[in-house]
Amino acid sequence: MKQKLKIGKVYKQRYKNNKIPIARDKNGEIIKGNGIHRPFIVFFSDDKVFYLTTKTVKDENRRKTTNDPQNLTLEMDLYGNDDRTISVNCSVVNVMERKLFESLYILDDERNDFQTDPDTYNKIMEHLFKHKDDISISEFDYFDFDNKQPIFKADEIANRNRQEVEMIIVGYNHLINETNIIPELILDKPDHFYEVVKECFYVSKYGAQDELSKAYYKKNSKFDELTANSIWDTNKFIDEFNKEWERKLQLEKEKYDERQQRHYNNQEQESHHQDKEDDTDTPKPTQSLKFTM
Questions:
Q1: What confidence category does residue 34 fall into, taking pLDDT thresholds of 50, 70 and 90?
Q2: pLDDT tens digits, one per residue of 55-108
Q3: Which of 18, 134, 150, 286 is most buried by a 10 A CB count?
Q4: What residue spans define the domains of the chain?
């Protein structure tokens, strides 16, 4: 079954039974620091997670961190707190199987699956685009629990993810800078985001009039369904989004009303059955106290 796509999510709190790091830097060194609770900003595909490491900028690491042009320094953390400066490492996109990644993090912790704000996500994506030609890909393989070490796949295998990474970065940049779409709308519709960004990637890579681009659109494009204007015009996009939202709300209301009616019918049947069997108002052990009120 196809899983829900996610973009711009933050994950931090892991289960304590596995403290092994899961990321590497551009030199291939394992990133440790701050125990297991290092926040990551991620993009989920159907079966993989693409994530960037972050860290708090402190006096002891400020010079080294800020001197690296591939690091993006933010005066606010990924949760919107302005009490610290953080750095997002945009030199390496780490990759992991989605099921494994999700199994590492506490499901009901509010610091996991946290949606970062559109402005922060946009800054990160712009920085990735700026340094796209120098990005390394590192793909996690498995945990060596005996030696308490992460094992990563060979670079040749990891680089098979490069086209998808490039597609997201380049496609997003084209979407933001060459159309009227705003980041807020993108984060609200991750499934739509993935398809549209993919199309933007082909436009930016091959050109709108290129024969290969035409062949791609003829086979795959969503443009024919909605028309180019309806996708790129912000007001129309918002209107369509709101209509879809209203439709879903109406469906939920109908489902709720249906459940309420079934519940009411069940209560009526139960009450009628008990009226025949009970001679007093004393509730039985399995009978609700409301019948005595």
A1: low
A2: 999 999 999 999 999 999 999 999 999 999 999 999 999 999 999 999 999 989
A3: 150
A4: 9-208
How far, in Å, CA of 155 to CA of 137, rounded?
A: 8
CA–CA separation, 93 and 24 (whole Å):
9
- Tracing tokens 């060979």 back to the chain, one arrives at 154
Residue 161: CB partners within 8 Å, gap ≥ 6? 48, 50, 93, 95, 137, 139
DSSP category for residue 114: E
| Residues 130-142: tens digit of each pLDDT | 999 999 999 999 9
Q: How far apart are CA 269 and CA 214, in angstroms?
A: 63
Residue 166: strand, helix, or coil: helix
CB 248 within 8 A of CB 254: no
- Which residue in this structure is represented by tokens 């062949």? 215
Q: How many CB atoms lie within 10 A of CB 36?
A: 18
- Model's pTM, two decimal places? 0.69
